[in-house]
Amino acid sequence: MTTVRQVAIVTGASSGIGKATALSLVEAGFDVVGTSRDTSRITPLDGVTFLDLDVASDESVTNVVQQVVDRFGRIDVLVNNAGIGLTGAAEENSLAQAQVVFDINVFGVMRMAKEVLPHMRARGDGRIINLSSIYGLIPAPYLAAYAASKHAVEGYSESLDHEVREHGVRVLLVEPGGTNTGFEANSTRPDTPIQAYEKQRRIADKVIATAVRDGDAPATVARAIVAAATDPKPKLRYTAGPMAGRISTLRRIVPSKVFYNQIRKYNRMAG
Ligand code: NDP
Q1: Which residues are catalytically annotated?
Q2: What is the CB neighbour count within 10 angstroms for residue 263?
Q3: Cα of 105 to ligand 1 centre, how many Å?
Q4: pLDDT on residue 4
Q5: CA 146 to CA 204: how far, in whole Å?
Q6: Superfamily of segment(s) 7-266
Q7: What gap in Å lies between CA 78 and CA 80, rounded to an integer?
Q8: d(CA 215, CA 213)
Q9: Hey, where are the domains in the chain?
Q10: What are the tens digits of pLDDT across the range 66-79?
Q11: Is the pTM of this model over 0.90?
Q12: 56 lines ligand 1 (CB under 6 A)
């Protein structure tokens, strides 16, 4: 069956930005498929069909995209929202921890993109919207693997956009600043704590928790995602919220030494 309404998939729609996005896309007129690793725990959302998905699993990704194609006959928009954080100094994170972050935040995006692209190319139309972060643009001490994963999403998305544009498909980036969700509570803690980093790690944990708690509402990010999904002439990058907009601009225009010092000051690091 092919529906006449546009169809959007939102990964990680059980909470936070994904949930707000799924609801906003319904309001914008889309048939929305939201995903969670465990849909049995989901509170139903009006207009959203939930499917189980673990973006770290090839099989799960293949399965979910096939189900959407079988049920709806088309995929117009994919929002790669699922993601996790990892706190602590980089040396305090085992490689296995960093690999889990990449498997979700980076390879999860690639798995989903590769799976939907044949369908989008066949129709000569589609948008893949990848959740980056201001930490895809700037350094994030005590969130190094996370920042590396979002920088990877930036490089992958911008490159892929060049490849698929002539096939009618666009790949777009949404870059939120701190957003008030369960992100910080859901972040993984370092598995090999080292005394030498403890004092600064505690400060960094507070800085991160405050940025999330005092951050934008998830609806602010959802608005940027809906704009990316519907703008007649979409932009490659959408910052979400005033803080993210300022940081993105400053990153481009402030001399690197000044920017470096600002990062240390913001993170309350000595020297
Ligand atoms: P949440 O922790 O509230 O949401 C994360 C979502 O990801 C959950 O719905 C979870 O769904 C899903 N998820 C986690 N692991 C997997 C997996 N292996 N497979 C499929 N889904 C998974 O955080 P946010 O809403 O804040 O985060 C959403 C995105 O926004 C992330 O990519 C994050 O990096 C980004 N972001 C967040 C910012 C913030 O300050 N909050 C700032 C900048 C970017 P479930 O558990 O149901 O499977």
Answers
A1: 14, 132, 146, 150
A2: 13
A3: 9
A4: 86
A5: 14
A6: NAD(P)-binding Rossmann-like Domain (3.40.50.720)
A7: 6
A8: 6
A9: 7-266
A10: 999 999 999 999 99
A11: yes
A12: yes
